Amino acid sequence: MYMLVENRTTSYLHLKRSPGIRSWSLFVGIASIGLAAAYYSADSLAWKLFYMAGCFFVAAQNLEQWEEAVFDKKKGTVCLKTFNLYKKILTFSKGGNEQVVALLNEIRDVNVEEETVRYFGKGYLVVLRFATGFSHPLTQSAVLGCRSDVEAIAKLITSFLELDRVESQQDLSQSSETEASDADEPQDKY
After folding, report:
1. 178 CB contacts (<8 Å, ≥6 apart)?
2. Scanning 19, 140, 145, 189, which has the fewest C-beta atoms within 10 Å of its C-beta?
3. What's the whole-model pTM score?
């Protein structure tokens, strides 16, 4: 699953993402190696604690981030938040939270982009495109395989921001302008 809809109204959309089963499996596997090394070694208590702490830090480093996206039409902002357990531990809870806030009226398009993930294949993520030419991913990591889940989230955001209506209105105005300019041109009769 790419992102889950936490709350949705006509003026508020809250999306969440937590570490997936692969990430938790890797966390448990690496942490278990540290526990096993500490349990089965004949070393002193200090070395056993070092094995466990080292493997726990490596496991926490490989854990995916918790991510949220809050689209609020009343405030006119989108807030993208990330929480990283590893950074939180290293900075003694002073860091680990990152937040990006942007204006909703600056978002011009929502796309699904493909990203090559080494050793695993292709991953997909949603990218927000702004009027300034700046692009920002909705999440920091791509989801492997399930393009349909990512496209569903992109369509949800597009419909919430009413970007599909803006595009259709622009298409209609462009087609009416070309028809009007065609009518102004003189017609040759043969």
Report:
1. none
2. 189
3. 0.72
